Structure formats: C-alpha cells, structure tokens
Amino acid sequence: xxxxxxxxxxxxxxxxxxxxxxxxxxxxxxELYRDVxxxxxxxxxxxxxxxxxxxxxxxxxxxxxxxxxxxRVLASVKYLVDRLERVPGLAIACSVSPAPKQPVxxxxxxxxxxxxPAVWSFQLALRSRGLGSVMATALVYHADRLHExxxxxxxxxxxxxxxFGYTKGLDFKRVNRRPLSEIMRYDRWGDDG
Length: 193
Prior knowledge:
Layout: E1 15-20, H1 23-46, H2 50-56, H3 64-83, E2 89-95, H4 108-128, E3 131-133, H5 143-150, E4 157-166, H6 180-183
Antiparallel strand pairs: 1-2, 2-4, 3-4
C-alpha cells in the first residue's frame, strides 16, 4: 500500500486502516456521521451557539464571496452527510498508540506527524488511480461507537475517515484561497502580519 511509504515519527508504523465496502457497515457509519452533523453543526447553528456560528455560519464571513464560499462548503459537507452510505468505500485510519494528553507539543507532533502523512499518501494513491477522497475527521466524535461498529481492538484510536469513490470527471477547478502574502513569510513572521 502506498500509504505505508509515508514519513513516520520515530520509525513507528502506528497506523492501521479499516476499509469498509459492506453496505450494512456503511449504513451504520453513515448513521453515526449524520448524528455528528446534527450535534456539531445543525443544532448549534440553529440555536446560534457562538463558537459554531463564528466557525461555520456563512453570514459572519466578511465579503459576499466569502459567504458564498462558506455556503458551498457547508452544502458540500451536507451532501456527503446525506449520502455517505452510497460512497463506494470508506477508510478509517486508526493509531495503535494512545492519543497524546497534550494536543500540541510533547508527543503530539510525532503522533499526528505519522498518521496524517499516511492518510494523505493514501489519498494521493487513490487520486493516482482516478479516485477522489476527502479527510473527514468529524466521525471520531463517536470514537466509542465506531469501536463497536468496526470491532476495533481497545488499543486502536480512530483518527479520521476517508470516503472515496470515482469522480464525475478529472477536470478539477482551482479553489479560492487567501493570498499567499497573508499566510506565509520567509525567515520570521514579523510585525507586518
């Protein structure tokens, strides 16, 4: 598997992948994913939860272009939420090492610095074979229930889900991102940022 060629911290191949193609399993996972959407997006936006509104609500974005872009992003995620069980395959990437206690520093860099490149390498391998994919981390909100559905060993920590399938074409458009001058500096950040 090409994902195994990814860089890894401390030369520990701590990742494991579960590939799901069974329809009943996909339906169980889709149910969990819909619940995550309802609890972390739909309901908090409806009740105007300040953190969720700040992070996700298109109306709080600056320009009309940014608002439209955020509406498209939410619509795209919702499209996946509503149809996840129809995706040809799902990959669940897990670590066999316990998650670090601190989200940044200490062991976290090596921990995520191994599994995320493996997932990205998996996605690139899919792409090289004409398949599209997305890293969908929200599913780990239900890591305990995912353990049950996938019969994961207790030592496994689900990190992300990667739905994948054939695309409707290979003509991808460049997405609008912030200008490079806003997100990158050379040698130091400095006061002009």
